[in-house]
Amino acid sequence: xxxxxxxESPAPGSQAAAWGDLQYDHRSSxxxxxxxxxxxxxxxxxxxLHSDRYGGFWFVGRYEDVKRVMTEYENFxxxxxxxxxxxxxxxxxLEVDPPLQRQYRAVLNPHLTPSEVLKxxxxxxxxxxxxxxREIRNGRIDLAHFGETFAHTVTMRALGFEGADLxxxxxxxxILFGPERDGDAGHRAGAELMEFIGLALDxxxxxxxxxxxxxxxxxxxxxxxxxxxxxxxxxxxxxxxxGIHTTGAALTSALVxxxxxxxxxxxxxxxPDLMPTAVEEFVRYASPVSHMRRTTTRDVxxxxxxxxxxxxxxxxxxxxxxxxxxFEAPDQxxxxxxxxxxxxxxxxxxxxxxxxxxxxxxRVGLQEFLAAxxxxxxxxxxxxxxxxxxxxxxxxxxxxxxxx
Length: 404
Ligand code: HEM
Prior knowledge:
Number of helices: 15
Number of domains: 1
CATH architecture: Orthogonal Bundle
Strand content: 5-15%
Strand order of the largest sheet: 1-2-10-7-3
Helix content: 40-55%
Bound molecules: protoporphyrin IX containing FE
Radius of gyration: 21 Å
Largest sheet: 5 strands, mixed
Shape: globular
């Protein structure tokens, strides 16, 4: 468990020096539960902060700085990893820089375009309609359980898994994203999932069958040679883990907001055309991918602060998405916010390849939930639980519901 982060806000005017003792940690309970005031103070008073955690890194949270780190890939490379600490398994295409990264992406892109992902809309709608009566028991539901389960099933279906395989994946994902993930059960589930994905790739290698993402990966090429099995697994695993948690967190956060703001729920029911802008806004507000990391390839300067070559720079996407210099009333959801140049899906070469699928799942999940339920409210905000690492999510959100 990460050490607690204790923060005393500095007196106005004392500025950056007062933040010198702050050991910023994206896994701390402060960042997990209520980080917004801290991020606002840092953006105003100490926009480039050094932390000694994880071998030492710089944290930046202003909109312009975060965008710059993501787009200037020649200065800020992914090749030393994108997380703190670095994940043991290489994540493709996220942990290679252009131009090679573009070749890996080319394998995925055709299957994740806006029109291609619409193929999964009917599946998602039927799934929500089947799931909701099961998830709502005696007028109660855990919004986070619905959000997460719905999102991972839609993502797995879009990868190419179907039928009973989705139920098996549901069990593994439940373990891998639950409290057992770091124990024996978690390791067993991880190993079984890898074996299962390997078999699915074998079944699609060179044979006729459905033209899905798994097939594209099983038969994909980079640099004029076939992808090896390690590369294939890496691509699938990032699609699974990049797609599940993020989409689930966005949907859950949106449902919690609507539970707390029934006027917005009524407005979305009355004005269904608002849904696309609302979904973008929910992604900005939740910023499920909250922190990512790059490494400097040369000496650089951010906000007047010199940073040497080879240093880790962590950027706060969630902080940037709540930057009041870019977004008016940043801590409010404004269903028709325009413009909304949010960074929730990233920016630059690694901008999310699954954004259209993620948005489809959030939209359909919200539409079906709002159609099934006439009113809903959080049972007790104190009992809600949160997770924070490179991603932030609400992991438990019990609510009372009245069926429509
Ligand atoms: C609301 C849902 C989602 C959010 C908020 C989100 C967010 C992000 C962000 C911020 C990045 C850039 C990370 C960086 O630059 O370091 C990213 C990249 C990525 N995302 Fe998503 N994502 C979502 C859904 C999905 C889905 C559904 C999939 C898969 C089907 C997916 C797969 C990926 C992959 C493979 C990358 C790496 C792209 C590359 O390196 O070129 N994401 N995502």
